[in-house]
Fold this protein.
Amino acid sequence: MMQWRQALLALALVASVPCFAAHDASAEDFPNRPIRLVNPYAPGGSTDPVLRLLGQKLTETWGQPVVIDSKPGAGTNIGTEIVVR
């Protein structure tokens, strides 16, 4: 069950990248500061390498550093709360 959740999370993140790439960059200079991707699962899990590869590609594409921040615990509630705030 947990592997399916992790796979779906990774798929959702990868699927959302074209949405950002399709944005008209002439309207504003996004991103204009470092990007923080929160991983609600433990480092070394199946989502960690996927997010690190995604972060590397986004860094190359956007020209801004993408930081992967692992915040595991409480059934992903800790990571989710950080994203909400």
Observations:
- The chain has three helices and two strands.
- The domain at 2-23+32-84 is CATH 3.40.190.150 (D-Maltodextrin-Binding Protein; domain 2).
- The helical segments are 2-21, 47-62, 77-84.
